[in-house]
Structures are given as C-alpha cells and as structure tokens.
Amino acid sequence: MPINKIFGEHRKIHFETFGCTSNVADTMRLRAVLKKNGHAIAAEDEADLVVVNTCTVAKRTELNVTKRLKELKENGKEVVVAGCMTSAQPELVKSILGNAVAMVTPQDIHNSYSEEEGLEQDFDPGCVISAIPIAIGCVGECSYCIVKRARGDLISYEPEKILERVKSALERGVREVRITSQDCSAYGWDWECEQEQANFGASRLKLPGLLDLITAIKGDFRIRVGMMNPFTIHHILDELLDAFDSDKVFKFFHVPVQSGSDKVLIDMKRNYKAADFVEIVKKIKQRFEYRTICTDFIIGFPTETVDAFSTSLNLLRLVRPEKVNITRFSPRPGTEASKLKDLL
Questions:
Q1: Which regions of the chain does DSSP assign to beta strands (E)?
Q2: What is the distance between the alpha carbons of residues 302 and 268, in angstroms, rounded to a whole number?
Q3: Where do the structural domains in the chain lie, given as residue ranges?
Q4: What number of other Cβ atoms are within 10 A of residue 72's Cβ?
Q5: Least enclosed by CB within 10 Å: which of 50, 250, 257, 277?
Q6: Domain 3-108: which topology?
Q7: How far, in Å, CA of 168 to CA of 186, rounded?
C-alpha cells in the first residue's frame, strides 16, 4: 500500500527509531514522504500520531520495542508501526496494538523510492549527517537472522539515484554521508546474478565503483561505509581498498566475523572461514596505518562449545580490532538456529 494512504489526512507526527543505520535512513525517507503529503513533524507532546520504526534483531531489542509500544498505548497515543517487526513479527505487533494497527513495512519504504521519483530524505535543520541506503536485503541465509525475513533478498539501488540523493544531501549542508544496507559489500551482486542467468554483458557496478562515483562529486564531505560481510567483501577486497584510498572515505571497516570457530560459522551459514576474516584484516592494516576495524561476535550460539568460545577469544587477541560488538545469542522466531539444542 502507498505510504500516504496509510496515514490519511494531515497529521502532526512524531518519530521514534530503534536499531541500525538502515532504520535511521528509513525514518528519514518516511519523513520526506509524509511532509510532501502535507503532514507535519512534531515533538511527542504535540503529536497526534507516533511512528515507531522497530528493530527485532535480538530478543533484548524486541523487548525494548514492545515495552515502548505498550507505553504509547497506555498513554492513549495513536501509533503507526514501521520497520522490521512489521514484516518479521506482525502478529506480535497486533497482540499489543490490536488487529487494526497500521503498519509500514520495509518493502513499503523501498517501493516509495520508485513511486515518488525525485523525492529525497528529510532531516532536521543543521544536521550534518545523512544516512543513504544503497540496497535493501542481502545475499546471505544466516541461520540465526530474522532480518532476512523482514527485508528479503538483495535489491541494489541504481547508482544514478544514489548519486542524486548524495548531491541533494550535500546541497542541504550535509558533510558526512553514511551509506548503508544490510551488507554494503554485496552491492551489485543481484545484477551479477541476473546477468549470469541471462548469459550476457560485462559486470555491473559493485561497491568499489559506487564509492568512486560518490567521491568524484565535488564538495567538502566524507563517506562512512556501513557493515560489510566477510563473505562478500572477500571477493572485492583489493578494488575496495583502492576506493577507500580516497581522502573522502573514512578508513572505518565494520566487518562482523561472529565467531572464531569454523564449525560454528558453518552452523551459522556464514559462508566463510575465520582465516578469511584474518586475511581481510591483514590487508586492511597493511594498506592503512590509521584505520578503525570494528567486528561483531555472537556468544552462546547453540553449537558453540568451550573450545569454540576459546577459539573466538584467540581470534580477538590475534586481530585486536579497535571496536568489538558482543551479542549474546537469542533465538529469533522462524529461524533455523531457534530450533537447535544447546550443546552446553
């Protein structure tokens, strides 16, 4: 359903966003769509409607979101729910706010990019950071991940449209562009698959080429690249490091390894080995003396043994990333990993 039909006539709308940079970008997009259709952005105490852009990547996040939805209901606020929970757990949303609750799915927001040609994102005056999505979905099938249910297979946005959004943001005073998706280094893989099936043409643009196009835009700004999966980054690493050589690109690499155990990585369906991650980090460090390497670990995966956990610790000591995000495993509904029995 088109977004403007979900919200009806002119309203005063307050936004609350949970989760990742992609959700932040979706909120900015929703704001633009609604303002174009005559709605106003307002503080919570002045709003007659609250949009909650949800995240459900882990159980703790789910609990935070559902707690907030219950608070808004108790306070008598009309609520529209957006984000991953609407696609992955719509029944949970309905159990709190009723079957008639209005929901905006990630696919609805994705569709708005084609329905509203030329419509950009919206952000507060004076904001110097803009999150710009380059794709929706991913090429992975991770056994623990509920986000795949919410955002689906990879759909890369056309580079011309991305460049238009970057230029528009810069014209409005933005100085830091955060390009985002579920896996930035998978950008363009869907086009490659289409070409292989059709058996024609040269390779389409990948992330390194997209970065080259963005850095060629005139202006004083910087680019921060979002999360990249070791599986997809491994295939474009040399070209990617060349693209990162630009002074306009922050030397920030968020590459979640999730485990140091190859057995656990197989059970997670991550499609790479720990040694692949080590090689990626080694090449990054060789190329850039000053850089920030960030990675993620999931602790307590059902098939993780004491030895597997020790292997993850050894990997952490070997790589010594500047930032580490550690998440305790929580079974997500409908995922393969939720059906596994704990070995410990």
A1: 12-17, 40-41, 49-54, 79-83, 102-104, 129-133, 135-136, 155-156, 176-180, 222-225, 252-254, 292-299, 323-328
A2: 10
A3: 3-108, 123-339
A4: 20
A5: 250
A6: Rossmann fold (3.40.50)
A7: 25
Distance CA 263, CA 34 (A): 47
Report the alpha-carbon distance of residue 252 to residue 291 in Å, rounded. Answer: 6
| Dist. CA 74–CA 97, nearest whole Å | 10
Distance of CA 231 to the CA centre of its chain: 16
Residue 178: name the closest of 147, 208, 204, 211 by CA.
211
Q: Which long-range contacts (CB under 8 A, 24 or more apart) does 163-170 make?
A: 163/213, 163/214, 163/217, 164/118, 164/120, 165/120, 165/121, 165/132, 166/132, 166/214, 166/217, 167/217, 168/120, 169/120, 169/121, 169/130, 169/132, 170/217, 170/219, 170/221
pLDDT at 5: 78
Q: What confidence score (pLDDT) does residue 200 get? A: 40
Chunk the chain into consecutive blocks of 10 residues (it has 344) and report each block's average pLDDT, rounded to whole numbers: 78 96 93 90 94 96 98 96 97 97 93 64 82 95 96 95 94 95 96 57 80 97 98 96 98 98 98 98 98 98 97 98 97 95 79
Q: Where are the beta strands (DSSP E) in 26-112?
A: 40-41, 49-54, 79-83, 102-104
Please choose, from the candidates 138, 136, 209, 220, the residue with its C-alpha nearest in 3D space to the C-alpha of residue 173.
220
pTM value is 0.92
Q: Report the pLDDT value the prediction gives residue 249, as an integer from 0 to 100.
A: 98
* Nearest residue to 207 via CA among 140, 259, 265, 253: 253
Q: Could you tell me the strand order of the sheet in which 222-225 lies?
A: 129-133, 176-180, 222-225
Element (H, E) at 310: helix 306-319
> Looking at residue 113, what is its pLDDT?
74
